[in-house]
Write a structure and sequence with these properties.
There is one protein chain. The chain contains 3 helices and no strands.
Amino acid sequence: MDQLLEYLQKRNNPLAEEASEFLLQRQQELEAAKLELEKLKKAKKPKKGEEEPKINEAEYKYLKKDLLVRMIQKRL
């Protein structure tokens, strides 16, 4: 994905800007989710045997499927 994004950025393709904006937005969502999780942890202590809620950071590092497909099509 990084190489594909770099390829499109070098060619000033509008898809590269769209992908960059999307990834920036997802990064902001991740930071907001982390803050919310910290607030929940402070407000409510987990009970014995209860798992703490976790954030899957990997979900926030990928592009939407349709955007990725369009980028691949442009590259091909």
